[in-house]
Design brief:
The protein has 489 residues and is an alpha+beta fold. The chain has helices at 2-5, 27-31, 50-63, 134-137, 146-149, 181-195, 237-253, 266-282, 291-305, 353-358, 361-376, 379-389, 482-488, and strands at residues 20-24, 37-44, 71-75, 78-84, 95-100, 126-129, 158-163, 168-175, 257-265, 313-321, 343-352, 407-413, 438-446, 456-462, 466-474. The longest helix has 17 residues, at 237-253. It is globular.
Length: 489
């Protein structure tokens, strides 16, 4: 009787929908940019057959990655993936939209953005504004927010293809709560294998009910001794207010966000690395740095050198893919593909603006390499932090990347995803024998509560000659004008 009069007193819960298999989102899913919608965009140097692309993607999801064809739902207060038992025209594995342009990309519209490139002989790093590729990589109806994906029967994947006589744009959009960048790259790699005629039985799959992080979920009555994930801060209400006020003041002073494409030749990176290694050898040190350490060190030294002298600490976070670490069953890496979120960050001990200005690229690269080595040498701590994240409501807590008065930067690298090596030749139109290769990779993000991504950088791809990165910052942080900025690099 009371339940009828006061329905909120009832313990009744909504059952899962018919025809759907259900898997709850993990703590990593809901903690990692939950409100963000991501697009990975590929620019391919040929006209491709959109029907072949759509048919092979449908086949891949249906037979190998059914969770990629799922829907996102918030049921009984819990985010979950609802995976259709079968896919059909009313319940497709993805939304696939196509625009066909019977012309070359620049033939009719001179105002179309230029795809960044550089001659092979160009050996110095170069910086250009990031091109506005959104209209070619997202349909006009793509879901822009997490709320859009929570509507009934909205697939997790939205693929938009814009076909020109000389280029094809392929944009893959999904909510970050469902896929991280490496997960999307895993799908893309498997997709191109099917396109090129590989036996689908030989392509590794992800089972619909895969839950590799289940062992980190503690018992309901257990507690974790770890207070928070490494490098992130759980602030009190006053510190949160102070952080937000300082952050908003920086945005008021420098409100316009600009994004730059940075092309760093591999010969340049190798030469810088060689100099650092020779210096370490002369000092009798057995330490080393990798080319990625050098890339991060060179770039952040470049962008902070022009800043006024300051002791402001910069908290640098380096995204780290957990899939290859011995954290899972029998202390081994993941044996099967996993497209959902599987990354945390490695914190580099704070580096002041003055240190970025005064220290060499080699000294900064060593700071980064030492932080990575420290992280990998203590995987028990990584397990403990996963345990903290999976305890109670910790995943929904707001964590801050630095304390008030400091600044932060986040660096992500997709070099291991090898997006620049994806081969779409199997979708070429006609009997053309040339390889359909990726000539540029770009990324876009949107959110209901979008904030400028000052200090966020991503290595999107590498080709035979260079590493390509996109970095976001405030317009005033780049210098007085673009010519001056480019001169610094």
């Amino acid at each position: 009787m009371l339940s009828w009069l006061f329905p909120w007193l009832s313990s009744k819960t909504d059952p899962p929908p018919a025809g759907m298999r259900v898997i709850p989102c993990t703590a990593l899913d809901v903690a990692a940019g939950r409100d963000m919608v991501m697009t990975i965009a590929l620019v391919i140097n040929a006209r491709l057959d959109a029907k072949i692309l759509e048919d092979t993607l449908w086949k891949l999801i249906e037979l190998k990655f059914p969770r990629a064809g799922g829907r996102l739902a918030l049921r009984n207060g819990v985010y979950e993936f609802q995976i259709p038992d079968t896919f059909d025209a009313k319940t497709p594995p993805a939304v696939f939209t196509v625009e066909d342009h019977p012309e070359t990309f620049h033939s009719a519209e001179k105002s179309r953005p230029k795809i960044p490139s550089a001659p092979t002989a160009f050996k110095a790093p170069s910086v250009v504004p990031a091109p506005a590729l959104d209209p070619f990589c997202r349909s006009g109806t793509y879901p822009k927010t997490l709320d859009d994906f929570l509507k009934p029967n909205v697939p997790l994947l939205h693929v938009h293809v814009a076909v020109f006589d000389d280029l094809t744009f392929v944009g893959v959009t999904s909510p970050h709560i469902a896929l991280d960048a490496i997960g999307t790259a895993t799908l893309l790699a498997a997709w191109t294998r099917i396109l090129n005629g590989d036996d689908i039985a030989a392509i590794p799959s992800m089972e619909w009910d895969a839950q590799p992080f289940a062992s980190f979920a503690p018992e309901s009555n257990s507690s974790s001794n770890v207070r928070v994930m490494r490098g992130w801060f759980e602030l009190g209400w006053f510190s949160q207010l102070f952080f937000i006020v300082l952050f908003m003041l920086r945005l008021i002073r420098d409100p316009k966000e600009v994004r730059y494409c940075v092309r760093v030749p591999k010969m340049f990176l190798e030469a810088e690395k060689q100099k650092i290694m020779e210096d370490l050898k002369l000092r009798g040190s057995s330490e080393y740095v990798g080319s990625s350490d050098v890339l991060i060190a060179w770039w952040f030294k470049t962008i902070y050198t022009h800043r006024a002298a300051s002791n402001t600490p910069i908290h640098l976070h380096i995204a780290n893919d957990l899939r290859g670490l011995p954290l899972f069953t029998q202390d081994a890496p993941l044996a099967a593909p996993y497209i959902n979120n599987a990354a945390m960050t490695i914190p580099v001990p704070p580096i002041s603006v003055n240190a970025f200005r005064s220290e060499s690229v080699g000294e900064i690269a060593l700071r980064i390499r030492r932080a990575i080595l420290t992280y990998n040498a203590n995987l028990a701590s990584a397990r403990a932090h996963l345990g903290w994240l999976f305890t109670g409501s910790n995943a929904s807590k707001t964590l801050f990347p630095c304390p008030p008065g400091a600044e932060f930067a986040i660096h992500t690298s997709l070099r291991s995803a090898k997006l620049g090596k994806l081969d779409f030749s199997g979708a070429l139109i006609g009997e053309e024998k040339a390889r359909a290769r990726v000539v540029f990779v770009h990324g876009m993000a949107s959110s209901k509560n979008a904030m400028p991504g000052h200090g966020v950088g991503i290595v999107h791809m590498e080709d035979e000659d260079a590493v390509w990165m996109v970095h976001s910052m405030g317009e005033k942080r780049r210098g007085k004008d673009s010519a001056e900025w480019r001169a610094r690099v």
